[in-house]
Design goal:
Layout lengths: L1 H11 L4 E2 L5 E3 L4 E5 L5 E5 L4 E2 L10 E5 L5 E6 L6 E7 L2 H13 L8 E7 L1 E10 L2 E9 L4 H11 L3 E12 L4
Antiparallel strand pairs: 1-5, 2-3, 3-4, 4-6, 7-8, 7-9, 10-11, 10-12
Length: 176
């Protein structure tokens, strides 16, 4: 009888709790926070932890999408002089392009400038190299840490010699 009592006592104390959250679980509110691959923050309520031996099933989690505003960047260049200007962390593509042209034109001393590249929630870098006597320019637009590599890859793939980064990576990423 004592053995049976201890076995039953042991079995009743083996409650396993799980919350089913694949991200950061906040037990006070029963909320799970996940950042998806595009940088959006997703919150959903997983409820209180369920005991493994309670026999109840957990309801579907409620997904709450949080809209994080995008950020834009642009690069403008004067095709005659080669002088460029840029803008980062702007709230719209139009604002980024306006600021890049304004920066490039330098109050009229470098007119006219045109938009060479723009990016949304990403990074821009510029590589240049020589093809004969012609200077060629290539733009890399990727996620952080990859824009310079992309610009150099495009430059080399075009058969251009002496490829080098002339504008270091600049990023326009949403702020959480």
């Amino acid at each position: 009888m004592k053995k049976l009592f201890f076995v039953l006592l042991g079995l009743t104390s083996l409650n396993v709790y799980a919350n089913g959250c694949g991200g950061e679980y906040q037990p006070a509110t029963g909320t799970c926070r996940i950042i998806d691959s595009s940088g959006r923050q997703i919150l959903y309520n997983v409820g209180s932890p369920q005991s493994s031996n309670s026999g109840s099933t957990q309801s579907q989690p409620k997904v709450v999408n949080i809209n994080v505003p995008s950020k834009y960047g642009a690069l403008a260049v004067n095709l005659k002089t080669g002088i460029s200007g840029g803008a980062l962390d702007m709230d719209s593509r139009a604002a980024a392009e306006r600021e890049a042209i304004r920066t490039c034109e330098r109050e009229g001393s470098n007119k006219p400038c045109v938009i060479a590249a723009s990016v949304r929630n990403g990074c821009i870098a510029v590589a240049q190299g020589n093809k004969g006597k012609i200077l060629k320019t290539f733009y890399g637009m990727k996620e952080p840490g990859l824009a310079e590599t992309e610009a150099l890859r495009k430059c080399r793939a075009a058969g251009v010699s002496g490829c080098k980064i002339v504008v270091s990576e600049g990023c326009s990423m949403p702020k959480f």
